[in-house]
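When time allows, look over one protein, given below as sequence and tokens. The question is which stretches look regular and which look disordered:
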Amino acid sequence: MKSEITKLGLSAVLFCIFLSCGRDKVNEDLFSKESFKSRMDVRDGRPILFDDLFLGQPKTITFHPDSFLVIEEMEAPRLIKILDLKNNKIQELIPRGRGPGEMLVAWGVKVIDKDIFLFCGQLSKVIILTMTNDRHFVIDDEFYIEEKQSQRLIPMSHDKFVCLSAIGDEKRFSVLTGGGEIIKKFGEYPSFINDNEVKANNDIFLSVIDAKPGGRLFVAVCMKSDLFEIYDLEVGLRRRFQGPLGLKFSVETQSMGGGYMLRPVPHYLTYRTLIAGENEFWAGYIGHKWEPGKVVPLTEQCTKEIFCFDWEGKPLRILSLEYPAIHFDFDWKGNVLYALELRENDPVIAAYSLDTSLPDSK
């Protein structure tokens, strides 16, 4: 078990490279931990237990409003586990492969109108799951997107998607139809110290993205810097800000086998989990600085604090976690935080009931 989880931690390293602060005015908007109005200690979680549930290398957890939890696995025979919280049943879907109904790696789960959207970046493929009357999920649709080599995709609705543009593209994001065709590209890359020497791309600025339900807004958070960007599909960038480190770094080119890779200096793992609600978005802060030759404990590669913001980018509160979290999601109506945690290096699913009214919430 522990050796399998070690692979999970090491997989974070493969999320190569990124970014930093900017020299332009829009990048100078900084926040610190003291900018948040309140702090909540998240304690006394209730373990979620299922008969015959085995978590090998779990990657993400997503709450479904009909009382399901969707778990992404890495390198398992079937990549998706759906846990029925009402009936204590488990459904396993999506075999590993390149054929119909298959994916190589699931790179994201999103629930829209109770349908489950899955994305495989390696195949540039979307699979949509829908629920039957007996609370089972089946494949409703699957298709390939026109944007190749995108590393992140989020559905804004059934009819529109946003994804990171391919590495080397002049624009940061692509907007897609509900069938995966490109509508437009937009968004300028942030700046970094030596951007006159190294061309910016979505390898350097690899980000997690999520969208406001039913709206035009989405947020991108860089995983190797502390940069946040809030976008409107109609008007473009609304705000760019960063924190709590205020990182400024350059990008190095390093040889790797027969090619090369880009590496930020200094090299951090800052954020990995991002979730968005109607009034707020939450980012899981890690803040680990990579140092060559040092073995990094798995707990140092997980979320320790959750930063909560409104859609203007205003800091609201910090949630301090009892256990390091691989990933988390939130039931915005029931005020329950679901966390995929590491306890003694083993993955555990836990539920935390938060206050009926979160501090500083709208």
Residues 160 and 177 are 5 Å apart (CA to CA). Residues 1-27 have pLDDT under 50 and may be disordered.
